UniProtKB/TrEMBL annotation:
Keyword list, A-Z: Ribonucleoprotein, Ribosomal protein
A Pfam family of this chain: Ribosomal_L35Ae
A GO term for molecular function: structural constituent of ribosome
One example of a Gene Ontology biological process annotation: translation
Gene source species: Arthrobotrys musiformis
Keyword 4Fe-4S: no
Protein name (database record): Uncharacterized protein
PROSITE patterns: RIBOSOMAL_L35AE
């Protein structure tokens, strides 16, 4: 965080880059990885060094990916004493313990990533996207709406809370 920034909150992972800049970083990392692997045939020792450099590039990319994602747990649907409302899901975000902390995440995108049995377009991985709408209670739980309602099998599952769109 730059010293001239008005935001000095150490608890919230404020977003420093925009989503487009993340795409540029990923392309740059791929180029670096390709450059390392496309060099001349190395000796055995150099080969080990090159492999380590490629692994370092991948680790660096994964680390930069983590800057854009915060984990959350799907607790339940919004409910009363007897009736549940599957249109609204309750999410507990890691490190968020108050309503004030939850305010930062309002409007952020949420992804439920899961594996299916049948591959569609070559992939068994599917995603249901949603958006955080408002806080729920005083302990940092938030309400969110998804394009398709989350299945009950996702209760307790990990969700990815994206740190975009940024409102700072």
């Amino acid at each position: 965080m730059s010293s001239g920034s008005p935001h000095r909150c150490t608890k919230q992972p404020y977003l420093l880059w925009r989503h487009e800049q993340y795409d540029a970083m990923a392309v740059e990392m791929e180029k670096r990885k390709k450059k390392i692997t496309d060099e001349e045939k190395p000796t055995a020792v150099d080969g080990i060094r090159q492999t380590m450099m490629v692994e370092d590039c991948e680790k660096e990319l994964q680390l930069k990916l983590r800057l854009f994602i915060v984990r959350g747990k799907h607790l339940s649907y919004q409910r009363g004493k007897r009736n549940t409302d599957p249109n609204t899901s309750l999410i507990k975000i890691e490190g968020v313990d108050t309503t004030e902390d939850a305010q930062f995440y309002l409007g952020k995108r949420v992804a439920y990533v899961y594996r299916s049995k049948k591959a569609v377009r070559g992939s068994k991985i599917r995603v249901i996207w949603g958006k955080i709408t408002r806080p729920h209670g005083n302990n940092g739980v938030v309400r969110s709406k998804f394009r398709n309602n989350l299945p009950p099998s996702s209760f307790g599952a990990t969700l990815r809370v994206m740190l975009y769109p940024s409102n700072i």
